[in-house]
Amino acid sequence: MKKINDFHDPLMPTLLMSIHSEYVNQILQGTKIIEYRKRFFQDGFQAFVYTTGPYGGIELFMKCAPAIRSNAETLAKIGQQIQHDDYAEIYDYFIPKDDGCEIPILETCSLDKISLKKLREILPTIVVPQAYLFLDAPEKKPLLNYLKDQIILEHKTNKWTARSEQIAQLTKNPSELTLF
Predict the structure, then answer these.
(1) Distance CA 87, CA 106 (A)
(2) Quick check: helix, strand or coil at residue 109?
(3) For labeling, which of 11, 72, 81, 83 is most exposed (least CB within 10 Å)?
(4) pLDDT (tens digit, 9 = 90+) per residue, 76-103?
(5) Which is nearest to 36 in space by CA: 109, 108, 85?
(6) pLDDT tens digits, 103-160
(7) How far apart are CA 89 and CA 79, in angstroms?
(8) In which band, very low, low, confident or very high, does the pLDDT at 176 lie, cut at 50, 70 and 90?
(9) Helix (H, G, I), strand (E, B) or coil at 102
(10) Looking at the 3D structure of the chain, how many domains does it have?
(11) pLDDT tens digits for range 22-60
(12) What's the Cα-to-Cα distance from 71 to each of 56, 92, 94, 176, rounded to whole Å?
């Protein structure tokens, strides 16, 4: 059986981030390949995802390309074309600051859900972040080692070659975007 450690890259930052359960389910199904954030870490990263809600826990590990940062109109176009999301919803989400980012999800690994109680047995000070926190910090090493030792239930890779070309075509100034 493969473990998260088989896919974990020690040279990439490892984050803990939280996502609502409906979106985690879509990521696990492969229908959500872009994560929307008003602001976020800008480099490529890997993350353990904490599913929010009453039955929350970590059940997803994913690798992501650097965030695509742009204005509301461009991000809405990208979301509509690439992920078939509602243009108006995305636009309305980003328009208050007319800025934000879309995070391309490159690959995912599902695992048996690890409860907050279990996480606190390993690292009593752990707090589930609203945005993200780095698990690479020395004081979080016991938790990171535990998470990397989890068995993978399913691994998926999202194909981005054609999509990244499509994104470049949708932007007015493709040289201003960070694409992978």
Answers:
(1) 22
(2) strand
(3) 11
(4) 999 999 999 999 999 999 999 999 999 9
(5) 85
(6) 999 999 999 999 999 999 999 999 888 889 999 999 999 999 999 999 999 999 998 8
(7) 10
(8) very low
(9) strand
(10) 1
(11) 999 999 999 999 999 998 888 999 999 999 988 899 999
(12) 32, 11, 7, 11
Tokens of residue 113, six digits = 């859900």
Report the candidate in 68, 135, 58, 75 with the shortest Cα–Cα distance to residue 103: 68
Q: Which domain range does residue 32 map to?
A: 4-176
* CATH number where 69 lies: 2.30.130.30
- Residue type at 167 in one-letter notation: I
User: What global pTM score does this model have?
Assistant: 0.91
The beta-carbon contacts of 83-87 under 8 Å, at least 24 apart in sequence, are 83/32, 83/33, 83/34, 85/34
Helix ranges (H only) for the chain are 21-29, 72-83, 87-94, 116-122, 141-148, 161-170
Answer for the pair 48, 126: CB distance below 8 angstroms, yes or no: no
User: What is the DSSP secondary structure assignment for residue 131, as one 8-state letter?
Assistant: S
Torsion angle defined by CA atoms of residues 74, 107, 140 and 146, in that order, rounded to the nearest 10 degrees: 160
